[in-house]
Write a structure and sequence with these properties.
Strand content: 5-15%
Largest sheet: 3 strands, antiparallel
Strand order of the largest sheet: 1-2-3
Structural class: mainly alpha
Number of strands: 6
Bound molecules: carboxymethyl coenzyme *A
Distance between the termini: 59 Å
Order of helices and strands: EEEHEEEHHHHHHHHHHHHHHHHH
Helix content: 40-55%
Number of helices: 18
């Protein structure tokens, strides 16, 4: 592509600059289009629109590549841990041993939430969806930590970031405990991040609780796989909320709200329900036929992706994690896993799925794993939120520090009534 792109609007021809990133498609900079032609661009769902420059995450959907700060997801998940990924996201480089120890220490020292939050929690109905509780409690953090909300102060931004990463598992575990009528379990700071979370979810005051290291390792990998995914819906929500200069905790609450939707963070729950509905490997053929039928709205949940038109690299890693967890539990012959494997094999060979480039995505296997680890389905999206918090906060900080940053304000194609005069009530027919 040349360095400019020419567009003709109403007979007027203008040259638009073309920008190149490190890797990935070039972008046509349309920032001056309106000023020069009086026209907007139209792109519902932002399928062709880059909303920002970013140095954090890169996805090549055709090749099935996912990089955090340039590092392949496979290497980070196999060799690193989640807090190292958090450091990488926030600072742009892998930590040295001393930096990692310091970062882990800082995150660990922020795991407790203000004790007043306990009372806040008890105002919810016990049967509230834990994501509803998360939206509210994350937003409520903005009422507690006034010393880290000056977004123009780099130091306060970092404290807010560390607080978010540290407190999210505590809030998530509290949401879970509250929903099952058990007392909250305080964090235990001699445990690593993920073990601490598992303990806060599963320990009870009347018994000792030993964290299963296989589960802790598996969940740590799951957190790494979900840590960021460039400008997805919830991340774009956080950036847009933050672009007005809003309180950082409130911005993350906006991200949690967006993630809740079934087309985003809720898909793993839908995939698990589908596998349970299919029930046996013998029924797989029937459901594949349903998914291919144009007159049937049924879709294979956990298949297809807006960006990946190849095997989702996270799905491959997730499949391994599933096997590790089921092996630990002695469930190698788990019926749900058998259905999943059979479904995957049939779909990958089917012309319909090949032609449309529909491959398993991360949600295909994650539900089976989380269920096996004891999490109820309505906690799945909460776990996703815990992991994605670092992505949200890193993208939020990058936006604040971006000299090109301005309040996000999309335009529209107005298709409502043209100007008309008010009709008094008694004159309306
Ligand atoms: N099963 C059957 N057919 C499908 C599926 C599916 N899972 N996904 C897409 N198609 C078909 C669709 O019917 C359409 O066919 P046609 O061109 O004949 O009309 C074609 O493939 C393109 O589909 P689309 O909906 O236009 O594609 P999209 O990029 O807008 O949607 C998607 C991506 C993820 C919403 C979609 O593939 C889907 O609904 N998948 C199931 C839900 C799911 O697993 N979501 C999790 C996504 S990963 C989560 C994350 O990364 O945050």
């Amino acid at each position: 592509m040349s360095a400019t792109s020419t567009i003709t609007v109403d007979g007027k021809q203008i040259d638009l600059p073309v920008k190149s990133g490190t890797i990935g498609p070039d972008v046509v900079d349309i920032g001056k289009l309106y000023a020069q032609t009086g026209a907007f661009t139209f792109d519902p769902g932002f399928t062709s629109t880059a909303s920002c420059e970013s140095k954090i995450t890169y996805i090549d959907g055709d090749e099935g590549v996912l990089l955090y700060r340039g590092y392949p997801i496979e290497q980070l998940a196999e060799q690193g841990d989640f807090l190292e990924t958090c450091y990488l996201m926030l600072f742009g480089a892998l930590p040295t041993e001393a930096q990692k120890a310091d970062f882990d220490y800082r995150v660990t020292r922020h795991t407790m939430v203000h004790d007043q939050m306990n009372r806040f929690f008890t105002g919810f109905r016990r049967d509230a969806h834990p994501m509803a509780v998360m939206v509210a409690s994350v937003g409520a953090l903005s009422a507690f930590y006034h010393d880290s909300t000056d977004i123009t102060d780099e130091n306060q931004r970092m404290i807010a970031s560390i607080r978010m990463i540290a407190k999210m598992p505590t809030l998530a575990a509290m949401a879970y405990k509250y929903s099952i009528g058990q007392p909250f379990v305080y964090p235990k700071n001699d445990l690593d991040y993920t073990s601490n979370f598992l303990r806060m979810c599963y320990a009870v005051p009347c018994e000792e609780y030993e964290v299963n290291p296989v589960f802790a390792k598996a969940l740590d990998k799951i957190f790494i796989l979900h840590a960021d995914h460039e400008q997805n819906a919830s991340t774009s929500t956080v950036r847009l909320a933050g672009s007005s200069g809003a309180n950082p905790f409130a911005c993350i609450a906006a991200g949690v709200a967006c993630l809740w939707g079934p087309a985003h963070g809720g898909a793993n729950e839908a995939a698990l329900k589908m596998l349970m509905e299919i029930g046996t490997p013998e029924s797989v053929g029937k459901y594949v036929a349903k998914a291919k039928d144009k007159n049937d709205p049924f879709r294979l949940m956990g298949f297809g992706h807006r960006v990946y038109k190849n095997y989702d690299p996270r799905a491959r890693l997730m499949q391994k994690v599933t096997h590790e967890v089921l092996k630990e539990l002695g469930h190698q012959n788990d019926p749900l896993l058998e259905v999943a494997v059979q479904l995957e094999q049939i779909a990958l060979k089917d012309e319909y799925f090949i032609e449309k480039k529909l491959y398993p995505n991360i949600d295909f296997y994650s539900g089976i794993t989380l269920k096996a680890m004891g999490f109820p389905t309505d906690m799945f999206t909460v776990l996703f939120a815990v992991a994605r918090t670092v992505g949200w906060i890193a993208q939020w900080a990058e936006m604040i520090e971006d000299p090109m940053q301005k309040i996000g304000r999309p335009r529209q194609l107005y298709v409502g009534p043209a100007k008309r005069d008010y009709v008094p009530l008694d004159a309306r027919s």
